[in-house]
Structures are given as structure tokens and as C-alpha cells.
Amino acid sequence: MISLTTHPTQTSRYGRGMQSRTPAVRPGRPRSAAADTAILAATRAALVELGWSKLTLGDVAARAGVAKTTLYRRWSGKNELVVDAVAELFDELELPDRGSLTADIEGVILQFAAILARPEAKSGLMAVVAESTRDDALRERIRASIVERQKLLVLEGRARAQQRGELPGESDPEAAARTADLIFDVIAGAVVHRALVSAEPVDTDWARAFTGLLLNGLTASTGHPPPSSHQTSFPRRTGAPRE
Amino acid sequence: MISLTTHPTQTSRYGRGMQSRTPAVRPGRPRSAAADTAILAATRAALVELGWSKLTLGDVAARAGVAKTTLYRRWSGKNELVVDAVAELFDELELPDRGSLTADIEGVILQFAAILARPEAKSGLMAVVAESTRDDALRERIRASIVERQKLLVLEGRARAQQRGELPGESDPEAAARTADLIFDVIAGAVVHRALVSAEPVDTDWARAFTGLLLNGLTASTGHPPPSSHQTSFPRRTGAPRE
DNA sequence: TCGCTTTCGCTACGAGTCGTAGCGTAATGC
DNA sequence: GCATTACGCTACGACTCGTAGCGAAAGCGA
Description:
2 copies of one chain form a homodimer.
Chain A (H helix, E strand, L loop, with lengths): L32 H22 L2 H8 L3 H7 L3 H10 L13 H17 L1 H14 L3 H29 L8 H25 L6 H13 L1 H4 L22
Helix pairs in contact in A: 1-2, 1-4, 1-6, 4-6, 4-7, 5-7, 5-8, 5-9, 6-7, 7-8
Chain A binds a DNA duplex through helix 3.
């Protein structure tokens, strides 16, 4: 929660975390931080009720109890506003140590899917990504506030797996970075495609099958689902399997 | 090429290939098939120049040399029009036999990426997918005219690989279908994510690395260096197609 | 308490888009 | 000829956009 009416906001216009070194205190009336949270919440509510295309800034302003001009003073348009509103949904994304690489991957898949299942994320995220194909500044905003945090989970999970001895250490740092980018695109892309394009649920069964594919590959585990135990061809799972 | 002015179009409004058994010939003046192709081409041109958000139906009509009302008589709105316009881009998608599963996968990845690299596909496809999260009819239209054709390639590639002995035959048809859906989401999702979210090129290097991951899994081949160096605690089922 | 500065709420505005209605005309089949 | 449908064109109300201008409010320092 942001402290209320104490310090100026100035995170919204300049893009989450950018925190460009502007003078800490400016003369004049400070911007209401409460208005920021109200606007972003109103934006998500409007996304749920109306979806991206029918969402208007006038409507958002009315929901937030704020003048339309105030909205335009803080965000340059619909795209930037929705990015910030959706980005807050990803604050809950984290990677608790579940004891094994398999469990960690399954966990992050399900967490990511849980966010994507929310209607305000569905309709908002894809729309701004679509817009970002013609707007470099918007893409950078998305990358900094949403994508980068997801990628960090991949790096964290790999480091943890290497520490456990489940994955070999990396000799070439450049190749390691490429591999991490690849893994990230595969995981995030597959989950998004399953949830939004195929429009089928990302449940534990799917997450388990996907994780098996990711670790063992096609040639090993095609069409041999676990007989009755929910264990794949993997020999061991160290951590306690979340009851 | 569609034959010109001979038979009524009636594919556009009812969705590519649906071909509902309407009376083959209706009384009155038939719809101009030439207008259809002109409108769809104009839509793609407008997507390139303006992008999704700034594309207006009035502009498309003007480009196509057609009255705006004609456009509304054939398509119910922007979404449906763009789906049909983008769907034609996927007509070139096919799966020539490249001799091995590895080569087939790499080939389809690069083909798919080549389509996604075109600006009219970039900005249009993601936008309609975003809209489809709140419009079941639109999602079905996308599925029938775009997604299903991609999925067929996966099935074809697997059948070919099984015939070569590169993949085991499927005993349970239901599990086989689930696996095919999984593979499809992984491939299509990863390519889309790489191209649109990460905004980095899908070149042969990336396609090769991705294919390697897909076939062998993470535990085997992370990175280019010799696979013999570090071995994990996991048993490796390699190479030979287990019957 | 008084200025100074910036934000806020409000109203109003021109510009642009939307989707539809109405009309006369063109193209097909009977 | 007839009936039926598609087409081009014009016009329209409704809506959204993004901005401008204004007076009031909320901070800070003297």
C-alpha cells in the first residue's frame, strides 16, 4: 500500500521503477497518491466489465471519482494506463522453494496461469502487447514493469536447480543468457497460448505434462502419462509435495 | 485466386470453410468476389500503415474503392474483418518433408516466424486474440480459420515422425490428442512470445536451440558445449527411438 | 499569515469515428 | 418484363477523444 498524501507519486508517468532522479520534493501541491491507486483499480474494474476495446478514459475517471483531465495529466493515453494497471497484478508473482526443479517449474506455471485467468489480465495484457508492436516506448514499459519480473523467476529457478545439482553449471555466460531467454519464451509463451488462444484451463495436469516435456523432451516422454502415480519418469522429488 | 464475379462469395460472413449448406444459388445480384479480395488486401495495407488501433473501417473502404456500407453488409465489425484478412496470410503455411523430425520442426518454426514477422500479422493477430477473450464467436472464428490449420501441421509432423520411427506409436488416442495439444501450445506460444513480447528475431539459431530443447529437454542439452561434460542426477534416455 | 507553485475538478469545445437509414441504381434469375 | 439482392452515395445522431481555460485547493518557505 502506498502511503497516503504524504509524498508525491511521480512513479506513474515515468514508469514503475524507473525512478529517474528528479528533485525529491517539488514546490506546489503534490499529486494525490490515493488518486493513483483509485485510478488503477478503476481501470481494472473497467477491464473486467467492458474489456479493452470498450474501455474509455472518461469512464475510468468517473469510476475513480476523478476528473478526466487528471487522468490525462498522469498518463499519456489508454495504453500506458492499462500497462500500469495490469502490472500490479504481477506483484504477487514469486518463486517459493518447492524443493525440486520440477516442483518449482510447476509452481511458477500455475502462478502465472492464475494471473492470466483473471479477466482484467486477459483482455488487457494481450491488447497492450498488440499495441506495443508499433510503439517502442510502450514495449519498453511493458518489458520493465511486467516481463522482466517474470524472467527473473527463470534465473532464480535455474540458480536454485544448479545449487541442488539438478542442472549443470554454466561455463559460457553468454550461452547461459541465451538459454534463459529461450526457457522464458517457452514457458511464458506456452502458458499464454494455452490460456488465451486455445482457451483451455492451465490446471495441474497440464502443468505436470508441460514440465515433463520441458525437462525430458519429446523423445522420452511422449504419450506415456504416469500409470497411476502422479510421478513422471523422474526418479525423485525431494520436497514435500504440497499437500 | 478466387474466380471473379461468377459465384457469390458468402465465405466471409460465415467464416472461412464453414460453408454452411445455404442454397447454392440465391436470387438477386450476387456479391462481388473482387470486392472481397480488395477489402481484405486494403485491410492488410491499413494494418501495415496504421496498426490495429488507428485502423478505421471508413479508411479501409476508401482504400478498397468500396462504399463503407458494403463493408458493414459483409462483416459485423473490425474484429471479424481483421481475422479474415490475417487468416489469408496463413495460407502459405505447409509442412514439406525435410527428412527428419528435427528438420521438420525447425522448418515449421521458421515458417510461422516468417508470417509473424510481417507487420500486418503482428499488430492484427494479437489484437483480435485479445478481443476474443470476451467474444466467444470471435474466438471460434479465429480457431477455425487460423489456429486449426497450425495444429494440423503438428499432427502431420508427428505422424511422419512415427512412420520414420523417430517417435513411439500412440496407444491411448486420448492421451495422444492431449500431447498434440501440448506440443502445439508450446511451439506456437514460444514463437509468438519470442517475436512479439521479447521482440527478438526468430532466426535459425534460435529455432535450432528451441528444437533441441523440445526434443531432448532441459536436463540434456542446456547450451552448445559438449553434452558429455556435466551430467545431472537424472538418467538420460537418449537418441534411439524406443520402440 | 502571505505569496508562490502545482494540482484538481469542472465545463466546454472541435475533430473524428461509429453504425445505420434511406434512396436510386446495377446485376442476376425467372 | 418481373422479383430480388447488392451496390454507391449521402446524411445523421451518438459517442469518444484530447485539449483549453478557469477558479479553488494543497502544499512549501518567508
